[in-house]
Each structure stands twice: as C-alpha cells, then as structure tokens.
Amino acid sequence: MKQFHLLAAASTLAIFHAAPVFAQSAPAQDPAAQQSQTDAAAQAPAAQTGDQFVQEDVVVSATKTDKTLLDTPISVDVVSGARIQQNQIRDLLDLQRVTPSLRVNQLQSSANTNFVIRGYGNGANNAGIEPSVGVFIDGVYRSRTAAQIGDLPTPRLKRVEVLRGPQSTLFGKNASAGVISIVTAEPSFTTTGFAELTYGAFNEFIARADISGPINDTIAYDIYSFYNRRDGYFEDRGTGIAENERNRYGTRGQLLWQPNSDVKFRLIADYDKIDEVCCGVVNLVNGPTGAVIQALGGRLIPNQRFPDAAFYNVPSTNNIQNYGVSLQTDYTLNNFTLTSITSYRESLLRTNQDSDFTSADLIGSNRTNTDISTFTNEFRIASNFDGPFNFLLGNFYFNERIRVFDGLRFGRDFRNYANGLAGGGIFPGVETGILGFPPGTFFQAGQGQFNDFRYRNSAYSFFGNFDLELIRGVTATFGFNYTMDEKNVSSNSFTTDIFSTLDFVAIGNGLIRNQGIAQGVGTALGLPAGALATPQQIGQFAALQPAIFNQISTGAAAFANANQANPAVNPLLALRPFQFLPPSVNFPNVVEPGRTSDSNFSFTARLAWKVTDEVSTYVTYAQGFKASSWNLSRDARPFAADLPALRAAGLVVPNLTTGTRFAGPELADNFEGGIKAKFRRVAFNLAAFYQILRGFQSNVFIGTGFALNNAGRQSTHGFEADATWNPTNELTLNYAITFLRPRYDRFPGAAGPNGQPIDLSGTVPSGIPEVSMTVGATYNKPLANGDRVILSSDFQLDTPAQNSDQFPGFIREFQNWNAAFTYQLKNGLELSVFGRNMLDQRTITTIFPSVAQTGSISGYANVPRTYGGTIRYRF
C-alpha cells in the first residue's frame, strides 16, 4: 500500500520531470553554433515552427556516427546535459535516477563503484577485473571504475548515452553488458562560460566554472574546474570523524584546432583528486562474535539498518588521483571520415579501511595501493556515400600496466579476540603448552598478510559495421569484432601471521602418534587403564624392549596417519577456522605460467525498417565478449586442478588452500527487437530482448576476501520502454520502465557464506528488481519580461529484490523522489533550489559477511535526504 501511495504521489508530481531522451537538436558544423544549441536545450522544451509544436530530434553517437535516436536501431537511453543540470545529477552514481536499466552501487571506498545494465555488471573491489559495462568519455575508454569520473562537467556536458546489451562490434574493449558514453562539448569559437556556487545540507559546497573562446580564427580553448566538498553524514562515534564525506576537485582543459573545414584536432587534458573518508558500514546482524568483541571493550551498534553511525577506531581513508591526456583527429576526405583517438592515463589509489567496523582494534590496517597506467589508440574510417551502402572500419589498441600492493595487519585486540572465538583454547594451552612457542607469538599486532601484484595487459581489436539498404527504408547491418587479449601477471605474497602457517594436520599427526606410544607403553608397563607413560618411562622401555616398542611405535604411526584429518581424533583441527591469513604459492612458477591469452570473433546482424518518417523498427542478434580477469587480491589461490602438479614440483606450502587465479572470458548473446516513434508531441521507444551471458565473472566477498569465478550460464529476458509527451508547449511528461526476468541457468560452485560452495542454478540473481521505472516532468515557462521558470522532478521506483545470493531473505526496495526549481533571468543569472531523496527513503544497497566475524552481516545504506540552492551565471 505504501508503494501504491508513493507511486500515485509520483504520478501526480509527474508535472515536474524531464524526458529521458529529451536531448538536443542536430549539431551544427560550427562549434560556436553547436554550443549555442546546447545552451538552448536548457531553455526550451521543444522547437516550434509557426504554430506547429515539434519535439527536438535527439542526436546520439552510439554507432560512432551522429544519428537521430529514431534512426539508431539499438536500445539506448540518452540523457541531455541540460536535464542533468536541471535535475542536479552530479556524477554517474546519480545517473540511475533517470535510466531504469542502469544500476550503480557505491561500495566500500570512493574508488569502488559497480555499474550494472540489464542485471549484468562487475568490476568493483578488484583491480584485475575489467567492468562488463564499458565507460567511454569523449571516445576514451576508462578501464576501471576508479579511473572514470567524479564529476559530470555541466553545462559543457552534451549528453550521456547508456547503450544496453553487448556492444563489442562498436567498441573495442569489454562491452559484454553495455556501454556508458559521456560526450562533452568542444571548445567554442564564441566566448562563452559560466560560474556557479551551490550550498546545501551537511555543509555541502560546490563551485564550478568554465570559460571557452577563440585564440584565433582556427584555435579555440576551454577550461573547466570544479570543487566539491560536503561534511560526512555517517557518524563515527569511535574516532569522532564523520564518514561518507565529499572532498574532490579537478580541472579539465581543451584545445581545438580546425585549420580548415576538413581537418580538426581536439586535445584534452584533465586532472582530478579525491581525498575522502568513506564509506560507512552498518551492522545488520550481530552474530555470536559480537559478544566477544564487546567483552574486549569494543563497541558497535547492533542490528540496526539506518543508524547512520558506527564505532570505529580508524577512519577509512581514500586518496585517489586521476589524470590523462587525449588527442582526437578527424579528417574528411571526399566521402570518407578518418578518426584517430589516442590517450594516456594514470590512476593512483591509496585506501585504508577499518575493516572490522567496530571500535575494537581487530584489524589494525587494511591498506591497498594501486597504480594504473593505460595507453589506448583507436583508428577508424567511416564512409558517407549517397548510395545504399556505407561502412565503418576500425582498430583498437590497448596497453595497461597495474601494480597492486595491499597489506592487512592485525590490531592490538586481535590476539585476545581470536582466543575468545576459540573459547580460550589457543593460549596458553596450545601456544606454549602443546606447540612450545614463546608467549605472545600468535596474532601479534602488526602481523598480517602482504601482496604485491604486477599486471600487464595488451589487447588488439579489429571491428567493422556494414550497412546496406536492401529496399527503400529497409537496411541490413552486419558488424564484427576480432579481439586478441593477453595478460601477464605475477605475485609476491607472504604472511607474517605465524598461526596461519601452522600445518595442524602434520602437527596433529605427531601428537596422535606420541599419545599412542605413551598409551601403548603405559599398558605394557601395567599402568592403570588410560594412564600415559612419561617420557622417562618411554625411553627406558624402548631401551629394554626394543622389539615391543617398535610394534607399539609402528601401530601408533599407522593410527596417526589414518586419523590425522579426523576432527574427532585430532583436536587441533578445530583451530583451522582461526587461520585467517594462510600462505599461498607465488606465480608464475613451473606449473602456473601467470598468463592468459584470449581471442574471439563476435558479430552483430541487424535488420532495420524505417516504416514512415515517424516510425522505425529493428531486430538484432548481437554477440559480446570480455577477456579473462585476474584476481589481484589476497584470495588469489591455485586452482584445485593444479594442486597435484604443485605438490610434485615441491611448491606446496603448509596450510595451502585452493581457489582461483583468474576467471575465464565472458560471452554474451542478445536477441532483441524494438520499435521507435517520434510524432509532434509524443515519442516512445520499446525494446524486447532475451540475453544470455556465459561465464559471467562473479566476484563475491566471503568474509576475509573475494572469491572470483565464472558462472556457468546466466540469462534474462524482458523489455524496456520510455515515452515522452508534451501536452502543452511548456510541459514535458515522461515515463520509463524496465522489466527483467533474470536467472542463473547454471552456477554450481558459487561462493557462499565463509567461502563454502553453494549451487545457485535455477535461482534468481540478487540485486536485480523485476521492475524499475521513473516518472516525472519538466515545466519550462517563459515569462513576459524575458525571464524563465523551470520546475522539474523525477521519481524512481524499484520493486523488491533479494539483496545477496549468500543471505536469502534480505530484501532491497527503493523509492526516490527528487525535485528542483530554477528561475532564469534574461541577463544570464540563474537561481535554483533542489531536494534529493525528498521522502528520505532509506535502503541497504549492498550486504556482505562481516570481516572475520562468522554469523554477523554488514551493509551499506543509501544517502539520506539532502537539499540546497545554486546560483549560476552564464555569459
């Protein structure tokens, strides 16, 4: 009932919202005119010819050539820069408010954001995993979520395109689930600019400024800068520091050189930095370990979903720097356009987290330093024939190097915590009594595990698209992509956690054997039943009765060998769950080469029919591919199949566990049909699809690290629809919906709680709502004095969905209402007020097993209600 009421309220409020495909008119050739049109999009909802109202054409570059949305036969959401500005969409995390097929999850740090399209997506929490959703900014591939974008540069932003389904034949790298393409405006040959200041809840302060203009008749420039800070809304009652803050800034410069109408060079350089305390974690289930933590004096807020507070002893810090440069060259030669885009980028990530999420000093530090350097080059040639045939051919080169160094250290309280979990059974009894170690050896503060991974990836891709108009209005398209991808990875891992290096099977064997000898000698000496002979008695008996002693010793050894792995006989095995950081085998080695080499040919076949000037339809079969991904984390373990060879080579270390080094490629198939229509006051798009993903690269947190493996087969079918209606010249209404029916067709051996394998075959993947939709409108009214008022709103609804594959029963549902009011003066000054999540609807976006706390569950909550005002000046 609550959902119905909120939906009804949202429908009533739909007089305030902008359409998801309401973008800009077709671009003019002159960059100054192009910028003028971008500004105009913010001013007027549609074009008018005399008394005839006509919705603006939406221009997209999803097919690497500019076309109207009506003539683009793929499923794509287009969000204009004007709408992004009006609706206070700050970054890609906010973009899901207006694109129902897209989900964006903020995880444990500012560098970990996961993009999901149609229920498919990965790439967070592990630098070795490239996302299945590719992100491109002005044609440049951003290979990791941390390297993407912390600010959408409005109003220089022209549009954001969200391409749904596999796009491998259009984009050269990893687009098996979809693409997010961000397109910004070129520098203008007319001096333009803006400056804006925003102040809002939690002392939010945002400053943005941009200026663009000519240097001479052939060269223009653009400089954009931003600063974004906000106090944290999540209270750390242990350190007194507020978490979930914002503190980021950056700058972006462009140069455009257009010596003549046929040649154009666009140089872009950017730098941005994030220095934030993030991200706060709440305790959803306080398991039996909570009592041990509290007994040590640790504090936590148990079993609460939205306290926006916790007790930590170390703030979770994030220091991220991104910078890079790109050069795009466009050359028109008769009926051909040649385009080259070359880029070099670096990302430096420094994070530390209080991973136990309590005030007890269990995890002293959990630091990760990641350095990423990426070089890309794309070259393509596109034809522009007047006849029925046109083509696009291109190649893409990618070279990336990554170094990850991470270290997890025990804190001062972990020794007593581990002993408490073991019921006091580790020390002094086992530590000094049985094993003979000096007191204080196990779980010392500063002990831990440390990993140094080096990763090199080279990839080549050749792609093409061929369009042939068979008869008037009917076009057949064939696209292909051939990719070769090679990765070379090495590890240098070691552990200083002495307790985790102990082989309790071998140690237990000795204890069982010695006990058997003492018991056998005691019986031979006639000691009371069950009495054990002393070492002195054993020595004397062996000297006096060597034959009998050999029989006793042989029998005890045989019994020990047979029962060393039996927990009922070997009591030390009960301590294995407390070996949190076992050692591993470094690679490459004689068994594991530390290399993957993948190649793939994928294709797209499409038939499109322009039924009338207002209606088009299409049917498509498309394949997608993503190469192998490597596990660059402390849970990178040898495959079980390699264990015999490692043992034969003498490389097995004590207490070695198995897992995965990498996950194999992802392969996607998409069957899709759609219809698009655009009339004077109404436009709509509808797509139905059946999508299959084989080998989905699943990366799941299991309590002490991440398990990376391939799902056998995952499929989803559904439809996407959006509609735009202008009942009056000033009012634009819209509705967008995505319906999904996902399923794990085959997924045996999935990672369950604490790493135990489970079979998810036949189940519904978590985190994917069956229905996602947005409704809303924009009322854009010019006044008689030349000023303008704009009232806009959007309402987002996700139906309930299971939050985690590991913990059935945790349900996520979401409702989000946002609104803004802007008054534009004719002199270029604008005043705005806004509210985000105005109903203060809270939800848990992600849940996971608490670190080294069996039975406890933690999670991340969404942002509470915020509000503020903006003053902006354009010139």
Describe the structure in your own words.
- With 875 residues, the chain is mostly beta strands.
- The chain folds into two domains: 2-411 and 446-502 and 580-874, TonB-dependent receptor, beta-barrel domain (Maltoporin, Chain A), CATH 2.40.170.20; 504-578, no CATH class.
- Helices cover 12% and strands 47% of the residues.
- The protein has ten helices and 45 strands.
- The strands form ten sheets. It has a 22-stranded antiparallel barrel.
- Helix 7 (504-524) packs across helix 8 (535-544), helix 7 packs antiparallel against helix 9 and helix 8 packs across helix 9.
- The longest helix is centred in the middle third of the chain and has 21 residues, at 504-524.
- The two termini are 49 Å apart.
- 49% of the residues are buried.
- Mean pLDDT is 89; it is low at 1-44.
